[in-house]
Amino acid sequence: MVKGKPPKPKKCKACSEKFIPRNTLQTACSPKCAIQLAKQLTQRKQQREEKERRAAWNKRKADVKPLSHWMNMTQRAFNDYIRARDGDICISCGSTTAVSYHAGHYRTTAKASQLRFNEDNCHSQCSACNTHHSGNIGPYRINLIAKIGPQRVEALENNNTPHRYTREELERIRARYRALLRELVKQREAA
Ligand SMILES: [Zn+2]
Ligand SMILES: [Zn+2]
C-alpha cells in the first residue's frame, strides 16, 4: 500500500518541464538540469553581489563630490520650477517674445545665497535682462512690488542672515522642486 498521497508533478526549475519528484526537495528533473540550476543560482548570486558593489561605489563617489555639485543640481531644479511657474515673461522688461528666459534672482545667489532657493526672490527673466543688463534691477524691483507686494520685497531686502547649506538639505530642496515641477506639469496637462 502506498503511504500518503502520490507525489504531484512539479515544474523543473531549469527546463520548465513537468516531472514527478522523488522527494519534496527535488527542484530539477534530472542531474543535468540540477547542474544547470546550480549554475543559474551561482550566477544570480554573483549578479546580486556585483549590483551591491556598484551601489556602494556610487555612494562613495557621491560622498566625495564637493558641495558645489549638489548646489548646482539643486539650483537647476529650483530654477526649472520657477521658469515653469512664471512662463515666458520677463520680470524686468515685461517682454514675452524673447529668444530665451532664465530664472533671474532679485538678490543674486553670489551676494545673498540665503535667498537662492526663495521663491519670492526668483522670477522668469529674459536672457537680455538677465545677462546683459545685470538683472535690469530697477524695473525688476518695481514689477516685483506689483507682483508680490512691498512687504515681501522688503522682507527679501532685509534678509541678510547667511545660510550654510548641507548636502542633505540640498537634496531635500532638490527633491521638493522636482516634485513641484512634476505636479505643475500634471495640473496643466489636466487643465
Ligand atoms: Zn529539467
Ligand atoms: Zn527683460
Q: Could you please describe the fold and organization of this structure?
A:
- The model has no long low-confidence stretch (mean pLDDT 93).
- The radius of gyration is 30 Å and the shape is elongated.
- The chain has 6 helices and 4 strands, in the order E-E-H-H-E-E-H-H-H-H.
- The chain has helices at 31-64, 67-86, 127-132, 137-148, 150-158, 167-190; strands at residues 10-11, 18-19, 101-105, 122-126.
- Strand 1 and strand 2 (18-19) form a beta hairpin.
- The chain has a domain at 83-190.
- Strands 1-2 form a two-stranded antiparallel sheet. Strands 3-4 form a two-stranded antiparallel ribbon.
- With 191 residues, the protein is mainly alpha-helical.
- The structure holds zinc ion (2 copies).
Ordered list of secondary-structure elements with their pairings:
Elements: E1 10-11, E2 18-19, H1 31-64, H2 67-86, E3 101-105, E4 122-126, H3 127-132, H4 137-148, H5 150-158, H6 167-190
Antiparallel strand pairs: 1-2, 3-4
Strand segment tally: 4
Task: Sum up the overall morphology in one term.
Answer: elongated
Report on the biggest sheet. Answer: 2 strands, antiparallel
Series of secondary-structure elements, N-terminal to C-terminal: EEHHEEHHHH
- What percentage of amino acids are in beta strands? 5-15%
List the uncertain runs. Answer: none
Rg, nearest Å: 30 Å
Distance between the termini: 74 Å
Helix percent reads 40-55%
Which molecules are bound in this entry?
zinc ion
**Average residue-wise pLDDT:** 93
Task: For the largest sheet, list the strands in their spatial order.
Answer: 1-2
Structural class: mainly alpha
